[in-house]
Amino acid sequence: MADRDLRTEQELATIRAWLSETYGIEATLSPLPGEHDLNYRVSASDGREFLLKLHADGGADELDMQVAVLEHLAAKASDLPISRAVRNRAGAVTGRIELRGPRTARLLSWLPGDIWAKAPLRDDASATSLGRLLAGLDRNLEDFVHSGAKRLYGWDIGRADMHRKHIELIGAAEKRASVDAVLDRFTSVVLPRMATCPMQVIHNDANDYNVLLDEQGNVSGLLDFGDMVETFRVIEVAVASAYALIGSRDPVATIAALAGGYQQVNRLSETEIELVFDLVMTRYAVSMCMAAKQIRDNPDNTYLLVSQDDVWRELSRLQGENRSIAIARIRDACGLAPIPQASAVVRWLEKNAHDFAPIVRPENARPKVAVFDFSAAGSEAAQWASLDAAEAEARIMAQIGSEHAAFGIGLYGEDRGVYRGDTYETSIEGARRSVHLGVDIFAPAGEPVCAPFAGKVAFIHDDAVAYGFGPTVLLEHEIEGGVRFWTLYGHLSRQCVARLSEGQLVEKGEAFAAFGTAGENGNWAPHLHFQIVTDHLGLGGRMHGVGVGDQWQVWREVSPDPSVVLGLSVPVSVIVPRDKAFLVRERHRRIGRSLSIAYSAAPLKIVGGEGAHLIDEDGTRWLDMVNNVCHVGHCHPRVVKAAQAQMGKLNTNSRYLHDTLVEYSRRLAAQFPDPLNVCFFVNSGSEANDLAIRLARAYTGNRDIITVDHAYHGHLSSLIDVSPYKFAGKGGEGQAAHVKVAEMPDLYRGRYRYGDADAGRKYAGDVRNQVAALAADGRRPALFFSEGILGTGGQLSLPHGYLREAYAHVRAAGGLCLADEVQVGFGRVGSHMWAHELQGVTPDIVTMGKPIGNGHPMAAVVTTEAIAASFANGMEYFNTFGGNPVSAEIGLAVLDVIRDERLMHHCRVVGDRLMDGARVLANKHPIIGDVRGHGLFNGIELVRDRETLEPAARELDFVIAEMKRKHRILLSSEGPHHNVLKVKPPAPFSVEDCDRFLNALDETLGRLSV
Ligand SMILES: Cc1ncc(COP(=O)(O)O)c(C=O)c1O
Q: I want to staple 699 with a disulfide (CB 3.0 to 4.6 A). Which of 310, 331, 870, 902 is the partner?
């Protein structure tokens, strides 16, 4: 055994004996790396694991600080994933040991995970989770004070200026210049701004060897409190970012993710957020100075040089970033407007637009324009790419001529393939600048350019490269509050620009420039690129004309939509498509969180629909088995055509006479037997049910309502009250005094089950009970709500005779009976147009919604003349949109398609096939407990045990996720136990679709049992 090994063995034996004696722990030990201390992983014989730190004497204050902070956090933040001090037999958190001299020993709990630098999975979500952890830590350290933290410490970058004297020790001139620039900016800009920023004790060293990640890439622990210092809080974020971004594809995205995570837990001020980017570079500069000093003091230590490679590479990358864009991206991630002044500029433009002068052709107040599509994904992209400037000009001018247009337009927000060359590369691999930040105006060379409002020539630049801007001018404009912005004019003529000088004033409407030729304008067909600029990014006349699509939330503020300045008769901008992660983030920010996202773990971005299929942004077709709203098929051409045609003619409220409305009411009422003859038109199922309550109250003079347990009838306050699914669920306020709930007639798991021929009558007995309960209080029901098949109840078919008996009890007490056909109507049940007809009843009121307009927001109530008459009591029922001509045309088209395509019959045939097939699967897969439904409104209930009926909700979640992931079939769950597979596809769902579904379900259930 070598001397060294022998010594290590002896040392380990010493420690083992000490651990046994001091802590009563028998353990094996593995040495770990450490800069100042001796560190060991301790594996106790009982399976527990610890970290043992042996601190050399000296630095007592610092060690005491480390002990104190763990005590502080133990009392305040027991949930933070940090090492916890373990007490020895004497109850102390430190002990003494003799090992290469006297040392203080601390035993700490072991944290699970891989260190960041070596973790297999780490991404920007990891950085966000690190930000959140550090924010939680800092919140708990706000009131921590310790003399050891009040130190002048080289690694406190709040004192970075103290390293300037070491810059000269850095060998390479290029590096020296970089570090000098960073520290110069630190002293002149960063430090003065930090004066107002909060200070406290921070961890100060969340580096890639001190942060642990779990298998999903989330932060699972933070180690080593030895670098704590009292300094500016924001330095915590900067230090962590400096390590987290090492090797990341897009360093600014990593900083933004980390700062954004921090902000979620501990709010940073605007100033702090704006300083993070510079402070990350400051950390690198300090590190380079410290290394240079150490190498001077320790010339043989080449290791120090190696560790500097990352630092220099990352500093160079960050110095290659545009600071304004980087800060804007970090602001955005922290929930701030990316460009603070942008909204004031846009508001000013909108407020003053009436007073702007035309930029071209001032004589033409409402010019006709020809719009061109230059997008990379456009149908003409290949053709445009094949033309040279002269050919493009000829083609553009020909189209302008043939359309008798005054000029042509190229759109703002368009993602274009024409921007070739290195100029459009960014520092981020794979991310090019390709999204158009201005509007192009095409007209012959020499066309005069007028200022839309007064300004001052701020920048003149000749971007004389192929595909560049050519001669360019930026006018500067100042608005209220001293806010400045610029308008950019690119592709001008060299001659006109030569006449301008910076500082020159330009009047509103003044023709100050002219379009250049292809030979001078960057080799484009002659046109003006007009762009609004709220921040010229320090680029002045070299300002970019195209931005990065993935960062559109920032670029659209740098250069907002110029439509407002142009005021043309056609849209001159397009919506820039964004990736799913961004859309989720923006939805969370801008749309109420109570609206959930389907398949939230892997949401879909749906951009099209056809028949029973939805189509995502990649063109993948998904079989839609949950959309009973688009009943006659997504984007059915007859419905679309009817809507478009009527939209092009007229859309008003229904107080004017209109043939279509009268025709539609006749056709809709004809779907019902007498005396259901009178229609009311509304906009949603909820509105229909709310109106039904009012009708019933008017007619009966009663107020109370009876509803079926677990039902859902709408989102209005009045309907939440009659929806046990809502009022008795999460966030619900419980049962209202005017509502009675009748037992849900569930033939599968209820009190009376399949095989009980009298179950309908027995369940209806509880409706009688509710009527009796009201009567006992001297009250009578106004209305009884029920669907013909219970949707939220779990796709439950009603027992024979249920509605007949229930209606009789309600009517006997003077109440009315409502059939809610919002989910189940319009022939879906196959044998009948309406689900209540399965029960052989005629309701007093029927409400319709969802499928009625095939996705267009409309709904209706049908009732008797007598009930309608009782409601006409002097107070008008006016509904702005209900029954408008467009809705009426759409409603008619839906009825026509159901009739002409024999969709009711189709629902029956395919629905029977589906249920037969599912019953065959039930013989093979015992998890299928029940198969039920009518036509294409079905439920397949999964249970773990056919005796106990234990719901298989988790298994159903798996089935739904796998049917989506593997088979591209969209389904969802239903029922009080979330264990019913809900089936309600658009009616064109075909026999082939049905077989595909059954095969996929068979395969998925097969995997479930493995
Ligand atoms: C049975 C039933 N009634 C009423 C409604 C409410 O319809 P809307 O969402 O159009 O207001 C719904 C909606 O899901 C429903 O399922």
A: 870
